[in-house]
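Q: I'm teaching a short session on how sequence maps to structure, and I want students to see two examples side by side rather than one. Could you give me a first protein with its sequence written out and its structure tokens following it? Keep the formatting plain so it prints cleanly on a handout.
A: Of course. Example one:
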Amino acid sequence: MKKAQISVEIMYAVGVMIIIFIILSGISFNRRIEIIKLDDFLDKKNECLRLSDIITGIQASGNETTAIVNIKYPTDAYTDGALLVKGTAITPTTVEASCTYHGTLSNGTNALDLQGPYRIKNANSLIKFEKI
């Protein structure tokens, strides 16, 4: 009659299963982090392309064309036709997304730092951003 004894083979098998579980959990965790980063990048790229389409459409539509847009992420609009969507204050080290637009900004040579609601106007073939 055995009293509370377990064989070495069963202990070994349980240990191997625990190690396999830990390895699979680590792989799953790393994959989840990659998916979250990719989702964040795609969301920013979508925001960049949306803003680019709006600016290009306003430029093409002619004078006095206006659009109201809410810019979700901090975005830099450069006069050379580039947009750069940056990380938020909560996640400043995330990947940035960039895209281009066709149009001429009215701010001269500086970049615009945009976030929040804006009215975008075409005034004499120059794109103006007005904070609402």
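Q: Perfect. Now a second example for contrast.
A: Example two:
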Amino acid sequence: MNLWVVVPVKPFDQAKSRLADVLPPAARARLMRDLLAGVLAQVRASELPASVLVISRDASVRAYAAELGAYTLAETGDDLNAALEQARRWVMQRGGDALLILPADLPLLTVEDILHLYDLGLAGAEVAAAASHDGGTNALWLRPPDGIDFAFGPDSFRRHIEQAAAAGLRWAAYRSETLDWDVDVPADLDFVAHYAPLSAH
């Protein structure tokens, strides 16, 4: 298996705009850097037999990700699903035959989450998705990488699973308290701060 972990990242200075009422721009940029570093650290700690690709249209994001040991790809648009499609084509051109998509804003992500998704893939799941608490998708396993279209956004967990079922692919749903949460709005930030300090990563 030639597995790639793909992490899409918005420009640091545009990240987390819905936190603007509680965090100034510099603090939001620092938060995004910390969240990205945390996700990449958990992937490294998992010792997953995978390469890691960070895709972003922000050169500073790519430089930071490269410092942390990731491959990088310059995003050509400004849409998440289009960026993931671009990354998927790039990976497949290099012989990748499995993808694990992880958003960059998963403050509670654990090694166990990563390995559980990998184990689902080893057990035969062609699509495995982890739901967020609000119905989004906080992790997506694909083997083959082009089994379904990317549908990240509101209600994406249901849409990813429905696509897999309609295509006749073997699919699995993964639910984890630590993968339930990303950071989009102030309430998320409050919950995560009480659950486990961001500095824990």
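Q: What should students look for in example two?
A: Point them to this: The two ends are 29 Å apart (CA to CA). Also worth mentioning: The chain is about 40% helix and 20% strand.
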